[in-house]
Amino acid sequence: MSKVVKFGGSSLASAEQFRKVGDIVRSDAERRYVVPSAPGKRFDKDSKVTDMLYACYELAEAGKDFREVLEAIRARYREIVSGLELSVDLDGEFGIIEKNFQAKAGRDYAASRGEYLNGIIMAAYLDFEFVDAAEVIRFDGNGSFNAEETNRVLAERLGACRYAVIPGFYGAKPDGEVKTFSRGGSDITGSIVAKAVLADVYENWTDVSGFFVTDPRIIENAKGIDVITYRELRELSYMGAGVLHEESIFPVRQENIPINIRNTNSPDDNGTWIVGSTCQKSKYVITGIAGKKGFCSINIEKDKMNSEIGFGRKVLQTFEENGISFEHVPSGIDTMTVFVHQDEFMHKEQKVVASLYRTAKPDTIEIESDLALIAVVGRGMKATRGTAGRIFSALSHANVNVKMIDQGSSELNIIIGVANDDFETAIKAIYDIFVLTNL
Ligand code: ASP
Q1: CA of 162 to the centre of ligand 1 (A)
Q2: Mutation test of ligand 1: which of 6, 37, 49 has the most ligand atoms closer than 8 Å to its C-beta?
Q3: Cα(337) to centroid of ligand 1, in Å?
Q4: What angle do CA 197, 202, 207 make, to 5 degrees?
Q5: Is the pLDDT of residue 295 over 90?
């Protein structure tokens, strides 16, 4: 048996947090591969080391004095090392980092040092082997992640060590240039490592006890989710449910390795299990509700649109040519509505509308802004009658006007468009009817 355990920034923000992590890893000999993030915030107004590194590098790149910020970063690590009573000396590493910053080694290199240094400390603290991610996580020359090559190299390298620490977030291109994933990318590294070693489970340790049915900032004491499928999670995280990087599902999913989200500050909680499929029914008809504000709808009308072959292609091609991705395209007989991110669309608006008139020759185009999309997701919906009916009656009772409805044929989710201002009220209404009332 082997487990891959990834710890997020808040789990590694101080020596005290490191100790909790140490206890967790040591309490189970199967926790063999550890993927650390960089130190996160110790308190609300604190800075994440990754943000400090970006800021520091910006100064270096602009030819300004960056030593003071680098010194503050060094102090963060010093505090951890001395708090753990380790004899790790990072002076040599900081000397190299300073030189590389002066030589403008790149923003990704700069950011990656947060995980790299934490990895060195973690390996010393646990007495595990340190495996630099730059040697085993491979990107191609264009900066795209090279999954096959990585899997081969990682499997071989980790096959040779029983216990190892592999820093999250970064890897390297064939020429050795460091490249990072997008922010929060240590989650992806954890998943890649789990796939390479064919782990029995990928434990992702953070500062909450798993996923909540909805955002606890909207619903205080929102209920937790015990088991969720990859597909449900994909829908929810795409629509804004945080906790896990949305791309981290893919590597483990290929091997059907479950992810267990756990809380470093409350290690006895079971957390949330993310699995391929399950016969376990969720407690409620719905598994989760997530959403995002800031969408715009472009409503295109044309008489007899339904019989015009190629109309949809012309419309979507216009968006493509303007580099705008679309979110949803509900359509009627003579109408087609395209939902896009407002900030992507806003500054190209007139150009897009003009080219829509030119290519698709519609009768009218209307734009509505400040919309929110809410996804109600649940594997249980397929087998339950009346889910949509309950959602819409709850929304009508809450005086929320529904602007758009989109249900995928998978019956896994229902997407609802409402005004930005109705977003919180709508989520509360849906939560109440399915979770609190749970009829
Ligand atoms: N340290 C990086 C960030 O803050 C990556 C991570 O924590 O996963 O985004």
Answers
A1: 26
A2: 37
A3: 36
A4: 145
A5: yes
- For residue 283, pLDDT over 90 is answered with no
Outline which parts of the chain fall under CATH 3.40.1160.10. Answer: 3-207
> In which band, very low, low, confident or very high, does the pLDDT at 251 lie, cut at 50, 70 and 90?
very high
Q: 381: pLDDT confidence band, cut at 50, 70 and 90?
A: confident
CATH code matching the domain that covers 288-436, chosen among 3.40.50.2300, 3.30.2130.10, 3.40.50.920, 3.80.30.30: 3.30.2130.10
Instruction: Check if 37 has its Cβ closer than 6 Å to any atom of ligand 1.
Output: yes
> What is the spatial distance between Cα 363 and Cα 91, in angstroms, rounded to a whole number?
69
Q: What is the pLDDT of residue 439?
A: 57
- pLDDT tens for 88-106 read 999 999 999 999 999 999 9
Query: What ligand 1 atom has the least distance to the C-alpha of 187?
Result: 8
Atom 2 of ligand 1, residue of closest alpha carbon: 184
Q: What percent of the chain has pLDDT over 70?
A: 99
Find the Cα–Cα–Cα–Cα dihedral 218, 183, 168, 80, rounded to 10°: -70
Ligand 1 nearest atom to the CA of residue 48, by list position: 4
**CATH fold label, 3-207:** Carbamate kinase (3.40.1160)
58 by DSSP, 3-state: which?
Answer: helix
pLDDT cut 90: percent of the chain above it: 82
- Is residue 263 within 8 Å of residue 283, measured between CB atoms? no
Distance CA 174, CA 113 (A): 19
pLDDT, averaged across the chain: 94
Which tokens is 82 given? 């001395």
Token couple for 372: 């929110």
Report whether residue 39 contacts ligand 1, using a CB cutoff of 6 Å.
Answer: no
Tell me, yes or no, if the pTM score tops 0.70.
yes
Contact between 375 and 357 (Cβ < 8 Å): no
Mutation test of ligand 1: which of 34, 46, 50, 108 has the most ligand atoms closer than 8 Å to its C-beta? 50
Ligand 1 centre distance from Cα of residue 13 (Å): 12
Ligand 1 closest atom vs CA 182: 9
Residue 318 beta carbon below 6 angstroms from any ligand 1 atom:
no
Question: In the predicted model, is pLDDT for residue 216 greater than 80?
Answer: yes
